[in-house]
Amino acid sequence: MASGESSGMAGTEHLFKVLVIGDLGVGKTSLIKRYVHQLFSQNYRATIGVDFALKVLHWDSSILIRLQLWDIAGQERFGNMTRIYYKEAVGAIIVFDISRRSTFDAVLKWKSDLDKNVKLPNGKPIPAVLLANKCDQQWDGVENNKATMDHYCRDNGFVAWFQTSAKDNINVDEAMRFLVGHILTIDCIHVSEDADADDKIKLTEDTEEPESKSQCC
Ligand code: GTP
Ligand code: MG
Known about the structure:
The protein has helices spanning 28-37, 82-86, 101-105, 107-117, 146-156, 172-184, 197-207; strands at 4-8, 11-22, 50-60, 63-72, 91-97, 128-133, 160-163. The protein is globular, with a radius of gyration of 18 Å. The chain is of the alpha/beta class. The structure holds guanosine-5'-triphosphate and magnesium ion.
């Protein structure tokens, strides 16, 4: 279950699956910890595989959003599980570390892995926001220039970019809020969880490639 909508007396509820990806040690887990628990630690413990976190957002008086954050280990880009992890995500955060140029160079590899492996039900790429994390530190080798970064985002299909610091709590809420706001504008994902089976079959016939189920666990 990735995205869903239900309505009741209290208003509308959404469940959105959002991926957090990027190279090893760029701060994905730290950003999530900051966002969900308001905590930060200097200690680095590499994520193995994938971790999950849930953030409940009272978007406004009538919309409640459950944000399911998938914290994917940096080392997973070299594995072959991403296709499974990305399934049914409706948004992504791609993170690099401004103090390590190589992590910026990897951004486009993560973006193409993302676009290759997951799409919205209408066949379009899922919205991705780029985070230039550790902005409490010095930039290294990446041009710290708004116009250049805006241009880079337009060229490479990012909906926005933010300088963030999980350490100093800079722009973390703002970036997540921007992505969620963007997801809310996408009509095709507001499909009721209870949509009847016939509708679901029609949807999948149009959009999904045939695949062998025999290798699924
Ligand atoms: P993997 O799980 O291996 O993919 O790494 P990750 O992207 O989850 O990185 P993680 O959040 O574990 O952070 C790596 C290191 O960077 C840790 O020592 C953090 O304390 C540090 N770090 C994370 N965010 C920031 C930040 O905004 N500023 C500074 N100065 N350090 C940070
Ligand atoms: Mg991690």
